[in-house]
Specification:
The chain is of the alpha/beta class. The protein has 3 domains: 42 residues, no CATH class; 126 residues, 3-Layer(aba) Sandwich (Rossmann fold); 133 residues, Response regulator (Rossmann fold), CATH 3.40.50. It is built from 12 helices and 12 strands.
């Protein structure tokens, strides 16, 4: 007997898309060609779709948020969470439990989470191996967002490629002393992150010298970012460009440049990362990398539903594209 996975395979689409189309979900947008291919596959496979009724069980999913409540408040993470909640709302899911990374130090919090009998869990932060294995032993369906692990499903973007986009842009515009300021994660030192690896490699390819004095780990803390930016601006020679690991950090960097009565990009260029809503309104408008953060959250929920509804134990790493957005904080060609 054919199942929904067979229909999705024959129609060349996802299980979630098949389910939405056959449920006649009015909020789900799909092309007529896709609808036709799904209905044709249903007919050829003699598949019978059991539509959920209004009284059907709502799936309960939880989220392990970013490192601290402060980091959780960063617009990048709230955008991911908004995508999760938006998709859950239309997908028969309740996001019924949130926990921050730093709360995991309390064993009672994990016990509390397990007692919720969650159908699935979305993780937005790197976890210690022991904690992760404990979670996977107690919650059947787990997926990571912007946090690749080869033992679990994940949705994210290519940190190597997106960093390469920034560095190629700066090198092409003849910047030669490019500073970096950012952070790592609780279990990955900043100097071991993919972003720093590609930063160093990009300098090597361009025959530019790596200088540890202009690489700053601010642990994503805005106050420390301000202090370290001042250190960079007081160097002789100072950097001619600063690559900030997030737009929130870049906003701080621009403020410190202004306080030093320097001009951006005439005296020093700035590039951010994330393309947050405010970034085009900064002075000057910020060159940055557009990361599909909300879509990562939405796709995580869709993949979670496939895992729950079909008891799908396959492991997929879903990589979404990024795009460099060129604005006035770096000089033109």
């Amino acid at each position: 007997m054919a199942n929904i996975r067979d229909v999705a395979s024959k129609a060349g689409t996802s299980i979630t898309t098949v389910s939405k189309v056959l449920s006649n979900d009015p909020t789900f947008k799909v092309t007529e060609a896709t609808k036709e291919s799904i209905h044709q596959a249903v007919k050829e496979l003699d598949y019978v779709f059991n539509k959920k009724t209004k009284g059907a069980k709502k799936y309960r999913i939880g989220c392990i948020m970013a490192m601290t409540s402060v980091k959780y408040a960063d617009p990048y993470f709230t955008s991911i969470l908004s995508g999760i909640e938006e998709e859950a709302k239309i997908s028969n899911c309740n996001v019924s439990y949130h926990i921050n990374y730093d709360e995991l130090e309390n064993p009672k919090k994990l016990e509390e989470m397990y007692a919720m009998n969650l159908d699935g869990l979305i993780i937005m932060e790197t976890l210690p191996k022991a904690v992760l294995h404990d979670i996977m032993a107690n919650i059947r369906h787990v997926i990571a967002v912007d946090n690749y692990r080869n033992i679990m499903n994940s949705v994210g973007f290519d940190h190597f490629e997106s960093t390469k986009q920034v560095m190629k842009h700066l090198v092409k515009r003849k910047y030669k002393r490019i500073a970096y300021i950012g952070g790592g994660s609780p279990n990955i030192d900043m100097y071991d992150t993919k972003r720093l690896i590609m930063y160093r490699e990009s300098l090597r390819i361009a025959n530019l010298t790596y200088d540890d004095a202009i690489v700053k780990d601010c642990y994503w803390d805005l106050d420390l970012c301000a202090i370290q930016t001042n250190e960079l601006l007081n160097l002789d020679p100072r950097p001619d460009a600063i690559f900030a690991g997030s737009d929130s950090l870049a906003q701080v960097v621009l403020g410190q440049i202004h306080q030093h009565k320097l001009r951006c990009p005439e005296d020093i260029a700035v590039v951010g990362f994330n393309n947050l809503n405010f970034s085009s309104y900064l002075i000057p408008p910020l060159t940055t990398v557009d990361v599909p953060s909300s879509n990562m959250g939405k796709i995580a929920v869709r993949r979670m539903l496939e895992m729950i509804q079909q008891n799908d134990q396959s492991i997929y790493s879903i990589i979404l594209p990024t795009q460099l957005i060129e604005r006035s904080s770096t000089r033109g060609e």
